[in-house]
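With this grant's support, we have paired protein sequences with backbone structure tokens. One protein thus recorded is set out beneath this paragraph:

_____
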Amino acid sequence: MVTGANTGIGQGIALSVGRAGARVIGVGRSAMDETAALLQGVGAEFVEMRADLGSTAAAQTMFEAAWVEHGPIDGLVNNAGIIKRVDAVDFTEADWDAVMDINLKTMFFLCQSLGKRAIAAGRGARIVNISSMLSFQGGVRVASYTASKSGVLGITRLLANEWAAKGINVNSIAPGYIETNNTEALRADPDRSASILGRIPAGRWGVPSDIGDAAVFLLSRAANYMHGAVIPVDGGWLAR
């Protein structure tokens, strides 16, 4: 199951895991026709599940329906997320809550849904939570996003501590600057884009498949002994 699979990083993850042989359940609040076509093109099975991930109850209901109709589910990639760019002095409670609800609250309760089902069935499972460079850094004008992504990394480690012995691997990927809708405003600002590229040793923005291929690794047997880890996929940003 990949949340936010209709575009950007989520679409890239869905395509990578589909290409690796998985049956993909894509979750989003809008149509995923393009994702479905891309997966069909690589011969992968794709199931679309619609849900408003701003609602924990809706997300949990969707998960239960997916497990009953298409499960059991072996892997969950919590990718869905939003961002609000506002100066801290002008940040509203609505901006705070909207981001935290999707990026952190729903992420946790989807993990919980899979954990409950997997533990009850005595099954192993893999969870990959998409964190961020802002799990390590403060950023600017993105207060709720920074808070949420710091929380994603913390929850990833907590769940790894609780569930590793139960055969559930919980890890994280921290994307750097990736060409998606979320970074469109940054890429459209020549000065900001140039300053970002100037710090990336790889000399380019990342693309969704860079994240997708890392997700395939964490969902595979190659990551059997990885619990609570975070893999930066950032073109060397953190090394600079």
Notes: The chain is about 45% helix and 15% strand. Residues 2-239 form a domain with the Rossmann fold fold (CATH 3.40.50.720). The longest helix spans residues 93-121. Helices lie at 8-19, 33-41, 56-70, 93-121, 143-163, 184-188, 190-199, 208-219.
